[in-house]
Amino acid sequence: MNQGLGGDFCLVCGSDPPLFTDRMCETCTRKRTELANVPENTNYTQCARCGLIDIQGKWVNIPEDTLWDELIQRSVQFHSRAEEIGLGFEPQTISDRHTLLHIQMEGVIDDLLYTEEHTMRARRSNGVCLTCTRRAGNYFEATVQLRSTGRRLEEDELNNLRASLDDVIEQLSDDPMFFITNEGPVTGGYDVVMGSKGLARAWGRHLTETWGGQVNETNSTVGRKDGIDVTRLTLLYRKPGYDLGDVVQWRNDLWRPSSWSKDGAIMERISRQERTGATWRDLEGVKVLAQMKDHVVVDILNRDDSVAEFLDPSNWQMTSVRLPWDFDGASSLRLATIDGEFIALHDMALDHSES
């Protein structure tokens, strides 16, 4: 061993350079340095009812691999000077509550590469998330009432309206309060009781954008908590008694609603080219004469400048009808039956998007 006067040497064993952490040689440095401190056990909480995992105070639905990675990141403490850290792990299920995580890691500390293997036990404890607690207590913040103007909602209409709520929930963020407390048919419509006012309002906007109609909100105070009033929302949605594309009687003539507007609908006259906006108040007296689902599309067999002939689908007899004002030489016509007589309908964009 050459330890010349003033030369560098390992402060532990006296070895010659190269020296590393705290002026120790590689051997002594490795004996006294750990890449990471890994606890023997780490704990997590899972909701016993719905399976959500408590991650830093927030209940979330995550895959197992993501959960193990989260527990490792949360529990393992790496050396303060560690760089270029690489990590891999392999879970081993021991029981329904215990999983061993076999961890391999590497990293550089003061220019030395360290490779270590550790085993950490992940222990699951049961809990109950806020959503399940509130569900069990029939908690709710809002009630959405589905109704129609001037008539009862048909079963297929109710099914479509209710199915749209599932679409809204799927498109919104994964909020645990977006749950349904209770629902079912009532006299004149359908009620849905839910855990979130935000969800109720989002659904209300979707209903009016898709099917038109109006939404009325009512808030009632049910108590106080921490000095703040606790309120519940009742949202009444009234669907128009007609749908886009229906033939309706309005202003002593036949019209078809072509689209919804913020305060009403855009109406198109059947007898001539005319398009106008109408408010819900304007449309209060509208009478549905032929729903779009009852329209028929027939092939033209013969025609002249004003009349077309076709086979009546109900009896297969040759029948004639006056051509619509926008007829452009097409080979087919959309027809509605009004008071037992066929009328030909002008063409609208929604006629081609009907499912």
Explain what this protein looks like in three dimensions.
- The strands form 7 sheets. Strands 10-11-9-13-12 form a 5-stranded mixed β-sheet.
- It is built from 5 helices and 24 strands.
- It is 16% helix and 43% strand.
- The chain starts with 25 loop residues before the first helix and ends in an 11-residue tail after the last strand.
- It has 3 domains: 35-127, Sandwich (Immunoglobulin-like); 138-239; 247-352, no CATH class.
- It is α+β, with helices and mostly antiparallel strands and 355 residues long.
- Helix 4 packs across helix 5 (197-211).
SSE inventory with pairings:
Elements: H1 26-32, E1 36-37, E2 41-47, E3 53-55, E4 58-60, H2 64-75, E5 77-78, E6 83-93, E7 98-109, E8 112-127, H3 130-136, E9 142-148, H4 155-171, E10 180-186, E11 189-194, H5 197-211, E12 214-225, E13 228-239, E14 247-250, E15 253-260, E16 264-269, E17 275-279, E18 287-290, E19 296-299, E20 302-303, E21 307-311, E22 318-322, E23 332-338, E24 341-344
Parallel strand pairs: 2-8, 9-13
Antiparallel strand pairs: 1-5, 3-4, 6-7, 7-8, 9-11, 10-11, 12-13, 14-15, 14-18, 15-16, 16-17, 19-23, 20-21, 21-22, 23-24
Helix pairs in contact: 4-5
In short:
This protein is of the alpha+beta class. The chain has helices spanning 26-32, 64-75, 130-136, 155-171, 197-211, and strands at residues 36-37, 41-47, 53-55, 58-60, 77-78, 83-93, 98-109, 112-127, 142-148, 180-186, 189-194, 214-225, 228-239, 247-250, 253-260, 264-269, 275-279, 287-290, 296-299, 302-303, 307-311, 318-322, 332-338, 341-344.
